[in-house]
Amino acid sequence: xxxxxxxxxxxxxxxxxxxxxxxxxxVLHPLLQELVQTPFFRYFKVKLWCDCPFWPDDGMCRLRDxxxxxxxxHEFPESFRKPKDDPVCQExxxxxxxxxxxxxxxFRGWVEIDNPWTLDDETDNGEMTYVNLQLNAERHxxxxxxxxxxxxxxxxxxxxxxxxxxxxxxxxxVLYKLISGLHSSISSHxxxxxxxxxxxxxxxxxxxxxxxxxxxxxxxxxxxxxxxxFVLRAVTKAASYLDQAEYDSGNHVEDLRxxxxxxxxxxxxxxxxxxxxxFDEAELWQGQGRPILRQQIQNQFxxxxxxxxxxxxxxxxxxxxxxxxxxxxxxxxxxxxxxQGNPDPHLQxxxxxxxxxxxxxxxxxxxxxxxTKTRDTGAIARLAN
Length: 385
Ligand code: FAD
Description:
Blueprint: H1 2-7, H2 17-35, H3 39-42, E1 43-47, H4 63-67, E2 128-132, H5 146-159, H6 170-192, E3 194-197, E4 202-204, H7 207-215, H8 218-237, H9 239-244, H10 252-268, H11 271-274, H12 290-307, H13 314-335, H14 351-375, H15 378-384
Antiparallel strand pairs: 1-2, 3-4
Helix pairs in contact: 2-10, 2-14, 5-12, 6-7, 6-8, 6-14, 8-13, 8-14, 13-14
The structure holds flavin-adenine dinucleotide (FAD).
């Protein structure tokens, strides 16, 4: 408990994993699953066509052609057609394509405010795609190899290196733990919804992948829990804002339902009782030199946000952008403090940020369920041997 109070970072001390699993399974997960299906929370706007700012030579922007070619292929001369097995472009695979049947009408804007933690330009214009998240599950897409590896490498080596053993400054741990937790969650979703057989189009769980990428690394699991608690803490801290926001999608009955579910989530989710202090941001950013560190971490997170434009698989880019925006929104809620460490009383969020925040929490909550389920099966124990 002492460690927790001293640093503000919760590892195992304040919430034991069993309590989190119980409350997630019984209360949060069912609530979130219902919430993300409401029209307000299922439509997300995103600029999917990239302008990768880091390695223009990679040819990533060619991906637009291979993702949404709207003309029949036979209209192109042979030399213009994309190679069948392009190792960079994963867009030819049906499982990586994004459903684009919505337009701007599905998305009525709120205020447009700049979030200092992210680099996304939220202006409504012709470059925006309006996506029904329910039709575009985050799952295995076949995006792998040097292109995917390059993104994770750039994130971990340049923008949030793993902190040294014995690091005592909690602020230096936050970013790495958040990204690692998100990475575990992405891997869990790939594992839970995996294309097992391309010829028969058979989908199912890939326990080996789950074991190798997540379960066998204690810190990957721990960081997943950390990220979940961090985002949940942000949602509960923004309770009064979320409570009073207008959930207008044009479908009155469904919007009332969204409002009702949000209220339940922010006020009634029993995690606060079981886990009084999942994350104590008030302890952070207090000491000397901390404002500079905060700026540095903010810059690193903005770089990570920009890196999402380099993700070479459309559906991965969609979920990468959404989840990084959700993390940026959590950081904005929890870390919007002045130099004296006082919280920002005028919190304002964009509609897209709220959608990202709740969908991210749902993804993390699903990952926790999958971790618990697979860890408890004998199959995983056999894989470990
Ligand atoms: P990777 O998952 O690429 O990991 C690379 C290295 O990072 C590992 O070798 C390990 O050293 C380290 N690492 C792994 N996990 C953690 C962790 N939790 N914490 C700290 N370090 C870790 N693929 C899909 O099929 N569907 C998707 O929706 C999808 N979304 C993606 C979104 C983004 C933003 C990115 C960058 C990639 C996405 N991918 C997706 C690709 C996927 O994440 C993997 O990169 C790919 O499956 C190849 O996996 P890998 O075995 O090389 O290990």
